[in-house]
Amino acid sequence: MNTFGRKFKVSIFGESHGEAIGVVLDGVQPGIPLDIEDFTADILRRKSGPKGTTPRIEADVPEIVSGVYNGLTTGAPLTILFHNRNTRSGDYSLFNAVPRPGHADYTASIKWLDFNDPRGGGHFSGRLTLPIVAAGVVAKKMVTARIHAELIEVGGVRKRGGEEALPDGGIEEKDSWREVLDQAMADLDSVGGVVECRTDGLPAGLGEPFFDSVESLVAHAIFAIPGVRGIEFGDGFAAARMRGSEHNDPFDKVVDGGFQKNAIPSKNGAGGVNGGITNGNPLVFRVAFKPTSSIARPQETFNFATGKMTTLQIPGRHDTCFALRTPVVVEAMTAIVLADLSRLL
Amino acid sequence: MNTFGRKFKVSIFGESHGEAIGVVLDGVQPGIPLDIEDFTADILRRKSGPKGTTPRIEADVPEIVSGVYNGLTTGAPLTILFHNRNTRSGDYSLFNAVPRPGHADYTASIKWLDFNDPRGGGHFSGRLTLPIVAAGVVAKKMVTARIHAELIEVGGVRKRGGEEALPDGGIEEKDSWREVLDQAMADLDSVGGVVECRTDGLPAGLGEPFFDSVESLVAHAIFAIPGVRGIEFGDGFAAARMRGSEHNDPFDKVVDGGFQKNAIPSKNGAGGVNGGITNGNPLVFRVAFKPTSSIARPQETFNFATGKMTTLQIPGRHDTCFALRTPVVVEAMTAIVLADLSRLL
Amino acid sequence: MNTFGRKFKVSIFGESHGEAIGVVLDGVQPGIPLDIEDFTADILRRKSGPKGTTPRIEADVPEIVSGVYNGLTTGAPLTILFHNRNTRSGDYSLFNAVPRPGHADYTASIKWLDFNDPRGGGHFSGRLTLPIVAAGVVAKKMVTARIHAELIEVGGVRKRGGEEALPDGGIEEKDSWREVLDQAMADLDSVGGVVECRTDGLPAGLGEPFFDSVESLVAHAIFAIPGVRGIEFGDGFAAARMRGSEHNDPFDKVVDGGFQKNAIPSKNGAGGVNGGITNGNPLVFRVAFKPTSSIARPQETFNFATGKMTTLQIPGRHDTCFALRTPVVVEAMTAIVLADLSRLL
Amino acid sequence: MNTFGRKFKVSIFGESHGEAIGVVLDGVQPGIPLDIEDFTADILRRKSGPKGTTPRIEADVPEIVSGVYNGLTTGAPLTILFHNRNTRSGDYSLFNAVPRPGHADYTASIKWLDFNDPRGGGHFSGRLTLPIVAAGVVAKKMVTARIHAELIEVGGVRKRGGEEALPDGGIEEKDSWREVLDQAMADLDSVGGVVECRTDGLPAGLGEPFFDSVESLVAHAIFAIPGVRGIEFGDGFAAARMRGSEHNDPFDKVVDGGFQKNAIPSKNGAGGVNGGITNGNPLVFRVAFKPTSSIARPQETFNFATGKMTTLQIPGRHDTCFALRTPVVVEAMTAIVLADLSRLL
C-alpha cells in the first residue's frame, strides 16, 4: 500500500502527468505553525543544481487542502496537493510495447494489467518524491532531533573532506563531482550516488526489538524511494569485515556527571541503535542510489509488440544523476519514521 | 511491535531464559501437511558447526500448540512453542550495572524502565531467531518459489568459487574460513559475515510501489534479525558506482515463444524488482552481519553503578561468528515476506 | 485514524469550511470504468428531500485527482476531491465557549487542544460523509453483491409495509413520515431514525473468526458515521429475547440439486453471518441514528467562558432528521467493508 | 485476523480440543505486578453459576509463558497459555455432514476448505473467550478507569432494580431469572440475554473522529465475542425514537469550580462519546447475546452427506444461557480497547 506509519500515517497518491499528486498526513500533532513558505527550501533542494537535473520545470507550490487553520495544524488529517502543469502526454505510449530498461513500465503492466497510467511513469514516477518531501517538512516539525542528509559519493567518487575513508578501498576522492557528471553527460549516460543521513539529538528508547526495530522502519521507508539499491547503518557492510573488539561500542562517555540516561557509546559503529532501539547516539546510515535509468544513449531491448529485439532511444532530456536530488527525500523519510516513533513513545 | 505481515501475520514472543519462546502464525493456508520432522533440517542449520557456535545446547523440539489437525494446517492461528531447558539464571545480573558493549542491555533498560528480563538477553536474545526459523518452515510451504541463502563472506574473506568479485576490491578469497575463525578464537575475538539470499521461481507482480515495495518489506523483516548492519539488492552499493548503461537491465530473454509474461531482464542488477514489484527474475539480496558482540576478550567500558570505567570480561563460552548460523534465518524472513505477498496477490 | 481497510484502504480528510474534503482509495481494482456521472445518483441520495434536510447547497461535483486513466481505474491510489464553496465562516466562533449539546465541539477541543477548526464542525462535520459516499460508489463496483439500505423508521414511526413488526411492540405504523417531520419542525426540534441494510449475492466465506468477523468490521465502519447509536444484525436485540429453537437457523434450503456450497439457512436470524463468516444468506443489519443535534429550539447549557449556565440558540436553518440522508452512507460503508474482504479472499 | 489493537496488540489462538489455547499481548506496560492469582476472579466469573452453564470442567489455570519477570511485566510480549485437559474428541465428527444450526460448522468448512478442526467447535469455540478474559485481566491493570459489566436481561426478563425501563415497553421485570432458566431447561431449549457495560473514570479525549471512534473500536472488539447480535451506546436504539431536545446532552455539571476539563454533560444519552471521542462521562453500552445455539431439543436440518433433511440431536449437556457467563468477557474486550487507546494517547 502507499501508506506508512502507525500513529503518524503518511499516504501518497497521484501520477506524474495526472491532475495532481499529493499526500495525506494523519496523526499530525495539533498546534504546529505551518505555512506555504515552510516548504520552499526543501522543495528547492529536491530540484537540485543546473547540471545533472531533470529538465522539467514545475512551479511545485504546495496547496494545503486540509488540516491547517489560522496557520496552525489542527490535529485533523493534513492534505497537501501539487498540481501538475507541465505535462507532456503522448511521449510515453511507446513504452507499452518497449518497456524501458530499469523502469517499472513492465512490472506495472503485470501488476495492474495494463491499466497503469504510462505517462511519465504514472504513479511510479520519481515525481512522487515531491509529496514525500512535503510530508517530511511537517514531520521534521514534529521531532526535536536534527536530521541532515548529504551526498557523499557520485559516480564512484568520494567527496573530499567528507567521511573517513570507508574500508573498501578503491574509491577515488576528488575536489568536485563536476568532471564525473560532465563525462557521463558527454557519454549520454548516467551515474549513481551514495547519501549519508545523520540525526542528532534523538532520545534513547525509540523503536522496538525485532519487527519494529528502528533499522526495520527506516529501511522500510528508505526503500520506498525509487532507485535505492542498499542501506547500511553505522559501520554497515564494513562491520562484516571487522572484529568484535573493533566494532563493539563500549560505553565511555559520561555527560552531566554520569547520570545513566546520558551515557552513550563513544564510537558509533551501531549507527545509534542497539537491539532495534535508539541508544542516544546519532542515528547514522547510508543509502545507495542507482544511476538514473533514463539515458539518452540507445539501448538494445525487447519489443513486446514485435517479439524481437529493438533499439530504444528514450526521447527528451535526461537527468544525469538523480541521486543529487535525493538527500532531502532521505531526510523526509527519516523524519516520517521518527515522527511516528516519537508519537508512539 | 513483534508482529509482521498483513495477511500472513507472524508474532514472536519469549525470553531466552523464560519458560518458552514461540511464534503465532495467523493467516496460514489451510490444508498444508505439517509435521514436527519438517522443522528438523532448518533448526539444525541454525545450530551450525562445532567451531564458532554458541555452546548452549537445547533440544529445540517444536511443540505445535494450535492450528494443525490430523497433520494438516487448519487455517486457524498456528502456534509453535520451544521450551527453554538449559537456562542458567544468575549469569546476567552484572549487566544491569555494566551493559555489554554491542548488546541491547542498555537500550532495553531505557525502553522498559529496568523491568526487562536480563537473563540471557531476555526477549532481545538471538535465541528468538528460533521461532522465526520455525515460522519460515511454514512460510516456505506456502510459496512455490525456491529460497536459498548462504554465507559468502566470513571475517572479510570471500568464498572461492562463489559470487563474482564485488567491485570494492580488497577482499581476499580463500579455500576455507577455518583459518579466519581459528585466528579470531585464538585472539578471544569474533568476526562478522555476509549472507546472500536468492529466490528463484517468483511470479512477477508481487509487491507495491512505494511503501510496500518488495525491498521495503524484505529489508523491514531482515533488519528484525539481531546483528544486521546492511542490506543491498542486486548490484547493491556497487550500483552507485556504475553507469546507467551498465546497471540497467534490458529485456532480452524470451521464454516460450515470446509471451509477454515470460520476458524477463537478462541481467539482474535490480535484484528482481522494478518499481517495488517483482519482475520475474530471481530476487537477490545480500545482508551484512556484524561480528558477535559477546567476546572473551576483556573490554573497557562504563560501570553505571560506580560511575567509572571498568574492565568487563563476559563470562561463559562465546560464539566466534554467529553469522554462520544466520542463512536459515534470512531464508525464513524472506519466506515470511513472500508468503504474505503471495496471499495478498 | 481516518483510515480503514487492509487491502482496500479508505482515508478521508478535510473540514466542512476548509478548501476541500476528499478521500484516497488505495487498493482499487484496476480496469474499473469510472466517470463523474457514476457518483451523481448516490450524491443526490445523500442530499435527500426538500423537508428535513440541511439548507446548505453545494454543487458537490467530485474531482478525480488520481488513479483513473482513460476512464478506467489504474490500480494506483484513487483520490477524489470535493471543493467547498458555500462556506460561511464566522458562524461558529461562539461554540468555543459554548459547545453545542450533542456535538463534538467539546471533545475536539480536548483532543486537539483548541487548535481544531471550529467552522461548521470542522473535520467532525457530517459533510465528511460525502467522500465516504464517493468511496462507496467505487467500492460498490468492486463487489458483485447488491447492497441496499433504506430508512425503516423515522421519529419512532415504522414504515408501513416494510419489515415485519419487530418484537418490541410499541412502534406506531403510519402511511408516511410527513406528519412526524412537520410536527418536529413546528416544535423547532429534530427526530432520529433507523436504517436497514441488506446485501444479496454475497459469497459464503468472507470474514474471519473473532477480531475480523464480518460483524466486527461492519460495525467498525458503521460507527464511523456521525450520529450512530446502535447496530444489530439479523434478529438483533430481539434475539436476546428468543429461545434457541426459535433463533437458530436450521439448514433447509438446497439450491441446484443440493450442492453443499449452495445450501443456506432458511431463516436469517443470524443476518448472514456465523462465527464471523458469511454463510451465503443476505447480510442484514439495522442502524439507529440519533435525532439531529442542531435544533432551532433554545437549549440550556454551560458557558465555559463565563462559568455559568446560558441559553444557546444555534443560528441558521437546521436539518429536522439527518437520518433521512444516511441510507446511502450506510450502503457506502458496507461496500467499503465488503470490497476489502473480497480483495482479501 | 485474530489480532486487535495498534499499540496494545492482542492475538488469540487455539482450538477447544487442541493442545492449548492462549493469547499474546504485545505492548504491555512494563512494571505491572502480575500473578497467577490475579486471573482467578475473572476466570471464575466466566464459569458462572451451577445452572445454565456448560458442563465441561476445566482447571483453567493460566500459564504465563513470557513477558513477566520477578512478578512484574517486562514490556516484552506477554504470552498466556491454558492447556486443554478434558477434551472429548470423537463427539464432533457428525457435524461435518450435519452442521449444527447457529454454529460456525458450515462457514468454517467453506472458509478453511474442510481442514477446520471440528472438535468442540475448534478455533470457533466459545472456549476462546478464556484467553480474552485473561487478556482483559492484564488490560484492566493498564487503565485507571473502572470497567463493570453485568447482565441486565435474561430471556426477555429485565432485572428488577436495575436500569431505568427502556422505552420499548414490553419487557417483564421479575425478581430473579431462575424461573426463566428452569423453564428453558425443562423445554430442552436455551435463552439469550443483554449485558450492560459501564466504565467510570475515563479521561476525555480518547478515540478519534470517524474510523477509530471509540464506538467503532468497542463495537469491533465486542462483535468478536461469539454470539453477539447487537450493540448500542447510551440511549442506543431508543435514541432513534427521541427528539433532539430530549436526547442532546447539555453541559450543566461543573466540578471543582468550573474548570473546563471537568465539565461534563449531565445526561449521558451519548454513552460518554461525542464525535468518536470520550467526553469524560461514563462509557455506557449494551450488548445483545443470542440464545445458546446448542440445545438438547431435536432440530430439523439438512444432512449434506445424504442431501436430505434430518433430525439432529446434539449430544452432551448444554448451556441454557451462555450470556450468563459473558459480562466478564465484555469487560475484557472493553479493557483491551481502552488499554490500547490509553497507550496511544
Notes on the protein architecture:
Four copies of one chain form a homotetramer. Chain A is an alpha+beta fold. Chain A is built from eight helices and 19 strands. The first copy, chain A, has a six-stranded mixed sheet. A five-stranded antiparallel sheet of chain A has the order 1-2-3-7-4, with helices on one face. Chains in contact: A-B, A-C, A-D, B-C, B-D, C-D.
Approximate shape of chain A: globular
Mean of residue pLDDT values of chain A = 89
User: What is the helix content of chain A?
Assistant: 10-25%
Radius of gyration of chain A: 21 Å
Biggest sheet of chain A: strands, sense, closure? 6 strands, mixed
Strand order of the largest sheet of chain A: 10-9-8-11-17-12
Largest interface: A-B, 112 and 113 residues
Global structural class of chain A: alpha+beta
Order of helices and strands of chain A: EEEHEEEEHHHEEEHEHEHEEEEEEEH
Q: Determine the N-to-C terminus distance of chain A.
A: 25 Å
SS summary, helix count of chain A = 8
| Uncertain runs of chain A | 49-55, 162-171
Number of strands of chain A: 19
Oligomer: homotetramer
Task: Kindly estimate the percentage of residues of chain A that lie in beta strands according to DSSP.
Answer: 15-25%
